[in-house]
TrEMBL record, chain A:
It comes from the Bacteria. GO terms for molecular function: electron transfer activity; heme binding; iron ion binding. Residues 35-115 form the Cytochrome c domain. InterPro entries: Cyt_c-like_dom (IPR009056), Cyt_c-like_dom_sf (IPR036909), Cyt_C_IC (IPR008168), Cytochrome_c-type_DH (IPR051459). Residues 1-24 form the signal peptide. The keyword Transcription does not apply. This is Alcohol dehydrogenase. It comes from Komagataeibacter swingsii. Keywords: Electron transport, Heme, Iron, Metal-binding, Respiratory chain, Signal, Transport. PROSITE patterns: CYTC. Its cofactor is heme c.
From TrEMBL, chain B:
This is Tryptophan 2-monooxygenase. The keyword Hydrolase does not apply. It comes from Komagataeibacter swingsii. Pfam families: Amino_oxidase (PF01593). Its EC number is 1.13.12.3. It is an enzyme of class 1 (oxidoreductase). The lineage of its organism: Bacteria, Pseudomonadati, Pseudomonadota, Alphaproteobacteria, Acetobacterales. It comes from the Bacteria. Keywords: Auxin biosynthesis. GO terms for biological process: auxin biosynthetic process.
Length: 140, 533
């Protein structure tokens, strides 16, 4: 009921790019200006390397890892990284809301042609679109 | 129908009708959130665990607040408790950084904190809502002194790069104008009978009076330059004494600029239950809470233990770990039951023998990325030059906010403020930077509020939670689907193992979540142990 009643208010909120409710103790009710994520390298630098590191070698924490991309057999099929980016995996969050089809295609192509990877079967935004989950994860 | 105010020929009638409806919603929204019934968490009192079988052994994994509280309550109940902790300190995400501390992050970057003596930053939790009664209960029980945390400061700044020519505006002025114009629109819409189908004749006068008071409107329902509006938004020339003491009213911003700025989102932010006054912080740093808990259970904790596997059968639990204080020697700990508070990004990669539903639940909860920056300046220019005492300035730039210390007001010498606190895309971005780059960006963005930034800057430290080896993320991110499918399984005792931590609560990312989940875990464990033959 509240949703319907305040639809106009909520709608104007979305103009600002609010993509999810704030984290409990966060102040990120509004997603601020972010770097342009045009190329695969942009996406990698501004989103992925915080965990997977600038050299794509990942990292090892308390008996657990951020996987490396170099020599990672799971990258053989582009569908796998697309799935993981869309849906998340274990501790890794989902990015289906934050990244658009072309951005996901770009970064998957980037990862699969860098860090000692030389795959030649590039994917397109349409390939990514086909993998979008019917119900994208939404934070509570 | 009575009408206290003569109808004037409506100008821009259609526009007002439309905007009136929108503003009405916004005003009602404000009223609803600010009058929403404040309800605490469901903490009432500590669990009473009576009749524990002497000598029953419990192994607790992780010495954060959840682990230490579980250990405290279980020992009190008569259990034999042992705690294994990965770090060389207890406290977990309850942490403060001070001068001389070292931050080593995944990727290898090392930062030495250069703060002056007595200064600190809380890179994790930093504020406690008054209704987090579980945490507050134990703070009192363990002698942790608390002081007010200033969340809302009317003299802080709000900034949008797309509004007001990119210049920050005072919270006070913005809030006054937003409320004023909203009240004006709603008041006039009612007065002009645009809302007759929604507002009964009875209600009419009440709403009009409320709008006039709440929005600082004049007798004609106008929000306009004058003494009435300046009493909320402040004067251009403040009230003084003597011959030239008369104040000069200030000029409100243009309504369209207020409405399109988006800055009202920060007004709503402070009205959320989580952020309402009174908020608290421990005197001397958030880690005073961890230290308070640690005083109770210190003798039970073994530090530097890297857990690698958790096995269980009908006889008990076996946990394998590397003793990092002894060259990683492999050791085993045994117990009858286990409370596991290991953060899920780590736990999901360990060899854990639990049922399929719990295993799936452990895999189903990613952790958010978050970054905080602590910046030390040579003096409190925000107080001395700007009269900002505590509170938060918000911006749509990646740093998201600057929060001023809620303690040490008016003191001379260096002070530390929170120079950025972000989740989401900006957090991913900042986590991927070197510590030096993070500081540089924080300074460049903070200058939008404070031109003194560069001149007064002394040193800074950044904390990227996704690069913290022992959590590999900040805190749990539950999706609606995961909550439906996996929450019960995650929280339910699985034979001899039960999970605890903020991730096993509906108060995710707050310390209260760790407290409440630990209390539920010990209660389940006690019941299970009582039932065991």
């Amino acid at each position: 009921m509240r949703k319907i009643l305040f639809l106009s208010f909520i709608a104007s909120l979305s103009l600002l790019g609010t993509t999810h409710p704030a984290q409990a103790d966060s102040a990120s009710a509004v997603v601020g200006e972010v770097q342009p994520l045009t190329t695969g390298e942009d996406v990698y630098r501004h989103v992925c390397q915080g965990c997977h590191m600038p050299d794509g070698k990942g990292a090892t924490g308390a008996g657990a890892q951020f996987p490396a991309f170099a020599g990672n057999a799971k990258l053989k099929s582009s569908a796998y990284p697309v799935y993981v980016i869309m849906n998340g995996y274990g501790g890794m969050p989902w990015f289906s809301g934050m990244l658009k089809d072309d951005q996901i295609a770009n970064v998957v192509n980037y990862i699969r042609t860098h860090f000692d990877n030389h795959y030649t079967d590039a994917i397109t935004p349409a390939d990514v679109a086909a993998q979008r989950p019917a119900t994208p994860p939404q934070e509570q | 129908m009575t009408n206290a105010h003569p109808r004037k020929a409506p100008t821009r009638r259609q526009l007002l009708t439309r905007i009136g409806t929108i503003a009405g919603s916004a005003a009602l929204y404000q009223a609803m959130t600010s009058m929403g019934h404040a309800q605490g968490t469901d903490f009432t009192s500590p669990p009473v665990l009576s009749g524990a079988k002497r000598g029953t052994r419990v192994l607790v994994l992780g010495a954060g607040l959840a682990g230490m509280l579980a250990a405290y309550e279980l020992r009190k109940a008569g259990y034999h408790v042992q705690v294994l902790e990965f770090q060389n300190r207890a406290g977990g995400r309850n942490i403060s950084l001070r001068g001389g501390d070292t931050v080593t992050e995944l990727g290898g970057a090392i930062q030495k904190v250069g703060f002056a003596s007595g200064n600190y930053i809380n890179p994790g939790p930093w504020r406690i809502p008054y209704h987090h009664q579980g945490l507050l209960h134990y703070c009192r029980e363990f002698g942790v002194e608390l002081e007010p945390f200033v969340e809302l400061n009317h003299n802080s700044w709000l900034h949008s790069s797309r509004a007001f020519d990119g210049k920050p505006v005072r919270y006070r002025e913005f809030a006054s104008d937003f409320h004023g114009f909203t009240a004006e629109l709603l008041g006039k819409a009612i007065n002009q009978h645009k809302l007759d189908d929604m507002v009964s004749a009875d209600e009419h006068d009440h709403v009009m009076t409320a709008m006039r008071q709440w929005g600082s409107l004049d007798a004609n329902l106008n929000y306009t330059k004058g003494t009435i509006s300046s009493e909320t938004r402040g004067y251009a020339k403040a009230l003084g004494g003597g011959i030239n003491g008369a104040p000069t009213p200030s000029e409100p911003f243009a309504r369209k600029d207020i409405m399109r700025s988006g800055l009202w989102t920060w007004l709503a932010f402070h009205e959320r239950l989580d952020m309402q006054t009174t908020m608290f912080q421990p005197v001397g740093g958030m880690d005073m809470i961890g230290k308070g808990f640690n005083r109770q259970v210190k003798d039970l904790i073994t530090l530097n233990c890297k857990v690698t596997s958790i096995q269980q059968d009908d006889k008990g639990v076996r946990v394998t770990y590397n003793d990092m204080a002894h060259a990683g020697a492999v050791r085993e700990a045994q117990a009858d039951y286990c409370i596991c508070t290991i953060p899920l990004p780590v736990l999901s990669q360990l060899d854990v023998q639990v049922s399929a539903p719990l295993k799936a639940a452990i895999m189903a909860v990613p952790y958010a990325s978050s970054v905080k920056l602590g910046l030390e300046f040579r003096r409190r220019f925000w107080e001395e030059d700007d009269q900002i005492y505590g509170g938060i300035s918000f911006t749509d730039q990646p740093i998201s906010q600057i929060s001023y210390p809620s303690h040490g007001y008016f003191s001379r010498g260096p002070a530390v403020l929170l120079g950025g606190y972000m989740f989401g895309p900006a957090a991913y971005d900042f986590a991927g930077m070197s510590p030096q780059e993070r500081i540089e960006h924080a300074l460049a963005q903070g200058e939008v509020f404070h031109k003194q930034y560069r001149k007064e800057f002394s040193n800074g430290v950044s904390f990227a939670w996704s690069r913290v080896p022992w959590t590999m993320g900040c805190c749990s991110m539950w999706s609606e689907q995961a909550r439906k499918t996996h929450y019960k399984a995650l929280c339910t005792m699985d034979n001899r193992v039960v999970l605890a931590g903020e991730h096993a609560s509906y108060v995710g990312c707050w310390q209260e979540g760790a407290i409440l989940s630990a209390l539920d875990a010990v209660t389940q464990l006690h019941k299970r142990a009582q039932g065991a033959s």
